[in-house]
Amino acid sequence: MLLNIVIFLVGLIVLSWSADRFVYGASALAKNIGISPMMIGLTIVAMGSSAPEIVVSAIASANGNMNTAVGNALGSNITNIALVLGITALVKPLLVSSTTLKRELPALLIISLIAIGFMFDGELKSYEGIILLGLFIFVLAMMAWLSLQVDKEDPLVAETADEIPKGVSNTSALIWIGVGLVVLPLSAHFLVNSAVEIARYMGISDLVIGLTIIAFGTSLPELAASVAGVLKGEDDLALGNIIGSNIFNLLAVLGMPGLIAPGLLDPDVYNRDMYVMLGLTLLLFLFSFDLIGKRTISRTNGFILLACFIGYQFWLFG
């Protein structure tokens, strides 16, 4: 048991590090070949923040742990909103002013409803996985298009540009991309296997291990990035990372088990967890969205979200 915990923690650290290095290399290479910082931020960086979840989901599905992969997708979204955004708002209230985010928030809500529609019958089918992954490609293309239409005065433009690596050679960028592509799946393999062994030892289901330990672990980079972002005054970027990550979790991460290991879902998915995710997404929409002017996600909002996360953990293990 102790060895599996050590393997899990090391795997988690290496997974997060390799995802960060992959995004670093890909962003630097894209900048060097003339792609705009906004396009890099809305596509490469946004997708990179979900890279740990995507790879873990693929490995878990390939190993036959379909519900671990589904739990990772739903649990990561729940953790991103309730824990990551909750703590971030408690550290410093977030001012939502980007028009880009006000387009992404409704998209997240619509995608959440589509995902719930697919899970509602208690089964994730192969064609549903294909549809989700197809939508993932479509959303990436739409984000690339939106990056070309965005108002230059949008605060997200400056915030994104500040985060793109500068002065990195193409050789170094390619090396880091290669490191990420090799180390990401290896670390995910060890993380998933150790997590499954821990779950068996503790007598909990594959679903719960995905909803809790794996989801929490793969959401730690978002927590660190979001807190660092608001402390630097990059509120829109911090919130954008969470929204983008949640969109990709529902499309790419949830799409993996549908494509690789379609089958019956744990009943708790369609009786409990998907509704918790939808409820938190609606709360995020309520706290963030304002048709006119600006909206602040306050410390009170952060406390509500964090209380929801704690209550959900008690529900899982009660």
From TrEMBL:
GO cellular component: plasma membrane
UniProt keyword terms in alphabetical order: Membrane, Transmembrane, Transmembrane helix
UniProt entry tagged with the keyword Transmembrane helix: yes
Listed InterPro entries: K/Na/Ca-exchanger, NaCa_Exmemb, NCX_ion-bd_dom_sf
Keyword Membrane assigned: yes
Swiss-Prot/TrEMBL GO biological process terms: intracellular calcium ion homeostasis
Domain of life: Bacteria
Pfam families named in the record: Na_Ca_ex
Localization in the cell: Membrane
Main localization, broad class: membrane
Bilayer-crossing regions: 6-26, 38-62, 74-95, 107-124, 130-148, 173-192, 238-262, 274-293, 300-317
UniProt topology in membrane: Multi-pass membrane protein
Record GO terms (molecular function): calcium channel activity; calcium, potassium:sodium antiporter activity
Domain Sodium/calcium exchanger membrane region: 5-143, 173-317
PANTHER family associated with the record: INNER MEMBRANE PROTEIN YRBG (PTHR10846:SF8), SODIUM/POTASSIUM/CALCIUM EXCHANGER (PTHR10846)
Protein name according to UniProt: Calcium/sodium:proton antiporter
Organism: Alteromonas marina
